[in-house]
Design brief:
Layout (H helix, E strand, L loop, with lengths): L11 E6 L3 E7 L9 E2 L3 H9 L12 E13 L4 E2 L5 E12 L2 E9 L5 E14 H8 L6 E8 L10 E6 L5 H12 L4 E5 L4 H9 L6 E7 L10 H21 L8 E6 L12 H16 L5 E7 L9 H13 L5 E5 L2 E9 L13
Parallel strand pairs: 10-11, 10-12, 12-13, 13-14, 14-15
Antiparallel strand pairs: 1-2, 2-6, 3-5, 4-8, 6-7, 7-8, 9-16, 15-16
Length: about 350
């Protein structure tokens, strides 16, 4: 559906099903709590409700069951903090099955087995998969990617340092333009070649006295590499994998995050040419963004106005603005003189309706 919840919502760790009942063990993943107090954390409740799917295993191929209501919810404890690793036991019982609707009672218990929450009359409705396919056509999607124009964030000139890593065969004109634009904003830029990521993090980025605020990796140009994009991407992909693993292990935190600067890795409009080599690196980083949002990974892409020519000074300026602003947006593209943000749009089925004459 295009909804990415990440690792914090992968809380279901064990599931046992019997005749008309199910017992789920749900554990709070590490790093998901920030001191908030809950009757039950949303991540745990989500996992408990997902466990109810085992009650309808025999019907899974023909239908999906969608939650539509709940008669009563009872709580027998006060809101509290839930430390990482907290365990919740969820005991679900099918109490009524009539027509397309199912009623389930769900008891929530803590690690000691004490009851602290109960959902009675939790109502689910059967939706035939064939009917859903007809409703959605062959797309089988509810959301689609949409690129919308945005204004780049502005940041006052500040003192600080940015580490610019130029990958093997990285376009020299893009590296030079980025360095110039970042330095024009009052920052010092250190350019490195494909230095070992472990050394990079250990000697440059993890040292407080280093003073680096951000890291920018310029993706190599895929046009000058072998035809097979998978083989071409092994070097940079392995480099990025080691970088993200090392940054996560050492809990690296950079004010401006880690930016990946590429050319033609994505198409923001129909007909745009895409470099499959750069696109494969975007796919990898998107996965890491979903799993480890705390790393501050940002994807930036640019395409020259004229095929075969370097990016313009104005485009390099927009990229530098996004880097130096420490933008919260994780996927941006520069096309022409504008920035484009990757977002989601609801895809509605086409029912063949047409506006009436004069409408």
């Amino acid at each position: 559906m295009g909804l990415d919840y990440g690792a914090s919502f992968r809380s279901l760790t064990s599931l046992r099903a019997g005749s008309g009942e199910v017992l789920a063990e749900v554990r709070l993943p590490k790093g998901t709590q920030g001191g908030a107090r809950y009757l039950v954390p949303p991540m745990l409740l989500d996992g408990a409700l997902h466990g109810l799917a085992a009650l309808f295993e025999r019907e899974r191929e023909e239908a999906a069951f969608l939650p539509v209501g709940c008669r009563t919810m009872q709580w027998f404890a006060e809101p509290r903090q839930w430390p990482d690793g907290s365990l919740l036991l969820a005991h679900g019982r099918l109490v009524e099955s009539e027509g397309a609707e199912r009623l389930v009672d769900l008891d929530l218990l803590d690690e000691s087995g004490a009851l602290f929450g109960r959902l009675q009359g939790f109502r689910l409705r059967r939706a035939e998969r064939e009917a859903l396919r007809k409703l959605l056509g062959e797309q089988d999607l509810l959301y689609e990617v949409l690129w919308r124009g945005v204004s780049p964030e502005k940041r006052p000139s500040v003192a600080g340092k940015v580490l610019l890593v130029a990958g093997e065969s990285a376009p020299a004109e893009l590296v030079t333009a980025l360095r110039s634009e970042i330095e024009s904003r009052g920052m010092t830029v250190l350019v490195e070649a494909d230095v070992d990521p472990t050394t990079l993090v250990g000697q440059h980025l993890s040292q407080q006295e280093g003073g680096f605020e951000g890291l920018v990796y310029v993706v190599p140009d895929g046009d000058e590499r072998v035809i097979d994009p998978v083989a071409a991407g092994k070097g940079p992909l392995a480099w990025l994998l080691t970088l993200t693993q090392t940054a996560f292990a050492q809990r690296l935190e950079l004010p401006l995050g880690i930016s990946l600067a590429s050319q033609r890795a994505v198409a923001t409009a129909a007909g745009e040419q895409v470099d499959p080599f750069a696109a494969s690196l975007w796919g990898f980083v998107r996965s890491v963004q979903n799993e480890q949002p705390g790393l501050g990974l940002r994807l930036l892409d640019v395409a020259s106005d004229i095929e075969g020519l370097p990016v313009s000074e104005g485009q390099a300026c927009l990229l530098a603005e996004a880097i130096c602003a420490g933008s919260a947006e994780t996927q941006l593209a520069v096309r022409g003189s504008r920035c484009w943000l990757r977002a989601w749009r609801l895809r509605l089925p086409d029912y063949g309706c047409r506006a009436a004459a004069g409408a």
